[in-house]
Design goal:
The structure is a single chain. The protein is of the alpha/beta class and 260 residues long. The chain has one domain: Vaccinia Virus protein VP39 (Rossmann fold), CATH 3.40.50.150. Helix content is 40%, strand content 20%. It has 11 helices and 8 strands. Strands 1, 2, 3, 4, 5, 6, 7 and 8 form an 8-stranded mixed beta sheet that branches. Strand 2, helix 5 and strand 3 form a beta-alpha-beta unit. The chain is globular, with a radius of gyration of 18 Å. It starts with a helix and ends with a strand.
Length: 260
């Protein structure tokens, strides 16, 4: 069993996205999914790394045509358990690095909302992105989620008092970039690295969005909010989530690309 399989077999990803603080990331991502689909009649959607189906199932239950590709069998079983058989969704166990079973120029929207968290070399990242672009129609959209470096340094290294541990394990570069391996599960990036990846592809960036912004810094306060206060928090979050001076401080970002 791989580190990734062991992690997702034991981690409640569904519970995270259903929590109050997880809803910020979910609602923000759905907002930009809807923006990409605006004006497209009968869109064909692909989610690569669909996890337990938080997005794919929700879109399929709206009657949208979805293909969900997921690497981890445990996640795929949970995804399929949410379906009643009426949804227009196809589920496939597969790898973001090899979508050879899917045809070129097939999808109006392709989403990678998890795979880039677990790819550790630039070559792997470009390969996954290239596959996503290949299967997307000309003029179609690609949405790519990333985990960001600075929130990890601020909260994990300093906030949880792990500085000496990560230094002893040589998990930080001299300029404070996290060094990850598969056993560490998550790869952290900076905004300039995302731009470098985009530059290798026949795409145009439309937006880079902070999907949770300041939320995870105040997770306990967000989870304790009443409905009215949380609604105001979302209003505030949507006001600032495209501000580029704040993007790198968000735990998660969403890169909205359009295939040229």
């Amino acid at each position: 069993m791989s580190y990734l399989e062991e992690y997702y077999n034991n981690y409640d990803e569904e519970g995270r996205l259903l929590s109050r603080h997880g809803q910020v990331e979910y609602l923000t991502t759905m907002r930009y999914i809807e923006e990409c689909l605006e004006g497209i009649s009968g869109p064909n959607i692909l989610e690569v790394g669909a996890g337990t189906g938080r997005y794919s199932v929700a879109l399929a239950k709206k009657g949208l045509q979805v293909t969900a590709v997921e690497l981890i069998e445990h996640n795929l079983e949970i995804l399929r358990s949410k379906l009643d058989g009426k949804e227009p969704i196809k589920t496939i166990q597969g790898n973001a690095l090899d979508l050879s079973g899917l045809s070129d120029n097939s999808f109006d929207l392709t989403m990678l909302l998890g795979p880039m968290y677990h790819l550790y070399t630039k070559e792997e990242k470009i390969r996954a992105l290239s596959e996503a672009v290949r299967v997307t129609k000309s003029g179609g959209y690609i949405l790519v989620a990333y985990c960001m470096n600075e929130p990890t340094v601020i909260q994990y290294v300093f906030g949880l008092n792990n500085l000496h541990e990560v230094m002893d394990l040589n998990m930080l570069t001299s300029d404070w970039h996290c060094i990850s391996e598969p056993k560490d599960l998550f790869e952290m990036v900076r905004t300039e690295e995302i731009a470098e990846l985009d530059a290798t592809l026949p795409v145009k960036r439309i937006k880079l969005v902070a999907t949770d912004g300041a939320t995870n810094y105040k997770r306990e306060y967000i989870d304790a909010m009443d409905d009215e206060t949380f609604s105001k928090w979302m209003d505030y979050h949507f006001t600032i989530c495209e501000r580029q001076d704040l993007i790198g401080a968000s735990h998660h970002t969403l890169d909205m690309l359009r295939k040229e």
